[in-house]
Amino acid sequence: MTLKRAAAITGIAEMRPQKSADGLSTLGIWADVSRQAILDAGLERKDIDGLLIGPPIVEMTAMWPAHLGEYLGIHPAYQNVVDLGGASAAGMVWRAAAAIQAGLCNAVLCVTGEASDVETFYAPRARRPNQQLPYREFEAPYGPMGVNSGYALIARRHIHEYGTTSRQLAKVAADQRTNACANPEALFYGSPLTIDDVLASPLVVDPLHLLEIVRPCTGGAALLIVSPEMARRSGQTPVWLLGAGESSTGMMLSQYETITTSPIAVSAPKAFAMAGVARSDIDLISVYDCYTITVLITLEDAGFCAKGEGGRFIEEHDLTYRGDVPLNTHGGQLSFGQPGLAGGMSHVTEAVRQLQGRSGERQVRNCELAFVNGNGGIMSEQVSLVLGVE
After folding, report:
1. CA–CA distance, 155 with 161 (Å, rounded to integer)
2. Which of 41, 62, 235, 265 is the most buried (most CB within 10 A)?
3. Please, what are the domains in the chain?
């Protein structure tokens, strides 16, 4: 089975991230970006017959697609929640294409976002004392500090195994800040950052510094995925799904066979094989970057460099929008911002903008193929996509 050219992305919308919710509601954010994405695709509400949202939000208890569909005044024939953490948005893309290919619908609205304050980002999810999860029994008693310590363990192990340096990791954050400074919508637009600045920021969990860790904020995004027939009638350049792959190892870091190799080593080859393209054909890399180590592991496991060579690869290449390996040209979540549980949608929307030639100052020249990767949990849930234009 292949999903190659089964569907295309034609419309996108994204709220500019902001540090505080300022009275906004998640449902309101969803509705606003949904309206904009439908307009961007040149469609009307009556055209939408599919709805995917995710991950679930704290403000509602159940049946999230029904809440949003009612709020928007649409009546989908296909709807679902995609809850893969930061891999949710990429997961929505291939699920929407599969539903379209199966004849269940023709135009799927995919929405993520959250009204979130950084001060309370983790609090609502922590108030669940009755949850009987393996993590609470087998990992939590040993004192991990949530996801920060999980990614720090991966970084420390990679440093131990392969000689990766903190300076190499810091370059990821610095290069992506250069990209953010060319993106007026980024949370850290106009705030340049050097490698030395990153290394001078406080250690949060050794070896990760404060400026190597994502900044939660309020925001949201949406995109429209449509059938080939609708795509060819669109006013925007269709961005075709060419390849997709997905893989998961579960949730607990203590259960991994190795913490320096992720399921991307499975999902990315599937995506490239379906698309029929090589890594050298890719013009843009747009991958989840909750931490600098996430980018390094992704580059290795997706096959852009050999295992253990990620640090050297980052050091030897320019990852900015004007460089030889353009990566996270919107600034990534490290500098664009991570809107609550937005599921990595900004990596998909940025790839679409670049492929449609709508990225302004940071536009990558002759951008025709993009590799997108979503990451959930602690490098545990992975979805890889290859997107392209004709």
Report:
1. 10
2. 41
3. 8-120+214-388 (3.40.47.10)
